[in-house]
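Entry:
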Amino acid sequence: MINEIFESCQTKMQSSLDHMLRDFKTLRTGKVTTSVLDNVKIDYYGTPTSLDQVGSVIAQDATTIVVNPWEKPLLDDIESAISAANVGATPNNDGEQIKLFFPAMTVDQRKESVKQMKGMGENAKVSLRNDRKHSNDQIKKLEKDKEITTDESKSAQDNIQKTTDKFTAEIDAILKSKEAEILKV
């Protein structure tokens, strides 16, 4: 029973870390990535559809993204969806494709990205602490119901704390390297 709680705790903590890494993809760093358009949806025959499902989305260089729709009538819909999403660049429609020219990031923009990144990291740490509390509560319940001894309970809680510390250290290391990446000019 303790092993199941421990494995469940590790799985939840890993998913918290994975969620933070997915959130990082929406941040803008020194060079532009197509993931800044991941949350942009267009109305495609009544269904909200992501841009990569209706055309090719390519980072042409460090500051330019090109959206080339497979159906040309979608150009106006894509252009308005990108404008509404406020991704940091104005879409330029040339009748064939849409180009987004992102200006180089200023120091203030980089600091704002770091601030957002740290917030995402803190959310991941809060999630880790919640996972730890939930697992510890399950172990304490087993001890209260006399299914495990006090020593087993203490040992299990120590293992959960070590796992929490490991994931927290991993998050801190990721935050530190990501901060250096964002602030590097």
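The chain has a mean pLDDT of 90.
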